[in-house]
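Field notebook, page 445. I keep forgetting to write these up properly, so this time I am using the form the group agreed on. The chain and the ligand, NAP, are recorded exactly as supplied. Prediction of the bound pose follows.
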Amino acid sequence: MQQITLGIIGGGTVGGGVFQAIQRNGDLMASRLGVRFKIAKVAVRNVEKLRSVRIPKPLLTTSWESIVHDPGINVVLELIGGTTTARSIVLRALEVGKPVVTANKALLSAHGEELFAMAQQYGSNLYYEASVGGGIPVIKVLREGLIGNRITRIYGIVNGTCNYILTRMKLEGAEFREVLADAQRLGYAEAEPSLDIDGHDASHKIGILASLAHGFWVKPKQIHVEGISSISRLDIQFAAQLGYSIKLLGIVKKLENTARGRGSVTKSCAAVQVSVYPVLVPNSHVMASVNHVFNAIYVRGDVVGDTLYYGRGAGQDATASAVLSDLADAALDLKCGSKSRIPPFVPHECEGMVLDIDEVVSRYYVRLTVVDKPGTLAKIAAILGQSKIGISSVIQPEGHEGESVPLILMIHDAPNANMTKALARISRLAVVKAEPKMIRVESFE
Ligand code: NAP
Ligand code: HSE
């Protein structure tokens, strides 16, 4: 049987998981693929470190270069994270013609355009199933399964850490910091947890999905990102009373085909919203039931209609499963001499552009902290009316008597720019005692 030799760079949560999964299911994969994997080396920073997955010492090295340049190694796995050394590893491996498997969404977000171009230039391949959705094979879904569809919507709960935190805050009334520590202990969180809680990890992932779906490279700075650190237990409770759950959602919406002039040429182009922010999801919608570390990606295609992909979005085994799927693809591509079965991120039938967040229209939940006296609501309603923003309901929750009380407004569809300007004016009213809290409401239409 043909043997493919692997060099794994990174022996932490994901690298350790891949090592363990190959020990467990290598025979199964060999019987399915007709190819056997052999792990030749594993690069780590510290060979003396105690690891939850034991890797035999003779396999360990601290030199990733020794893996990339070893002529006996057929496939390189970049599983260290970060964007500096990881970029060097991927570039060097591609340059010497080796296929690379990576789980590194931060790397792809920052340097994907360059890395995929290099892969094509050197006739090699870059595989990245584990970069989005943990164990959910969503890259394969968009690249292959839905290739005959125009993708009109993607809604993704794509950060396991944030979903774990929001779920435990809702179900147990737990404190944000305490739950984050648990997510770190369970191996869900990034080495730098602000990547998770400030929404950047989700934006790396949603950028990859948007680029795949729309065929143009969505740059990180084009994605509007808000994280979950400002979500309070109070908002989670009020949202629950109103029939909603708060989720951090990555959203890719194809809005319309517009005409865009470039010199004398006018081309049809797709305006796409690409953003990450916390959202009130109606409890009647399936995405509201995606809890703990689970991710879900809801994809609408113009032929298939609505589809949903669900599974563990982070952690050792889920991520290892996605890496194994890439290894199978790499093995079959090597076996069949295939260079690039489906080229990544190819331009589609029309140009695309990312819509500015100011132009994005949505519904809103607004929580104000106001003085409890007559005339307060009238002042707030007047500003919203002047901004052409309609109120769909007003709730002053019971049991909050005192000087300052919460006032919840549910707002009809309004452009983001109108809403932020109106809230800035409202925050300056003497009757408003704290910074207004605004969370968008998604109806999945
Ligand atoms: P991790 O647990 O921190 O592991 C990183 C590993 O890389 C460690 O073994 C470390 O060595 C090694 N390393 C770091 N710099 C190195 C260098 N210069 N040379 C050789 N080895 C080096 O991280 P992780 O959670 O496995 O994440 C790895 C990648 O997978 C990241 O891109 C992450 O975003 C992505 N990812 C993670 C998950 C998840 O659930 N954790 C899910 C999907 C994708 P030592 O062990 O000696 O320190
Ligand atoms: N930190 C990431 C998350 C790991 O929590 O989703 C999986 O990509």
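OBSERVATIONS:
- The pocket of NAP (ligand 1) is lined by residues 9-15, 43-46, 49, 64, 79-81, 85, 103-104, 130, 134, 187-188, 190-191, 314-315, 319 (CB under 6 Å).
- The chain has three domains: 2-127, 139-313, 359-441.
FOLLOW-UP: compare against the apo run.
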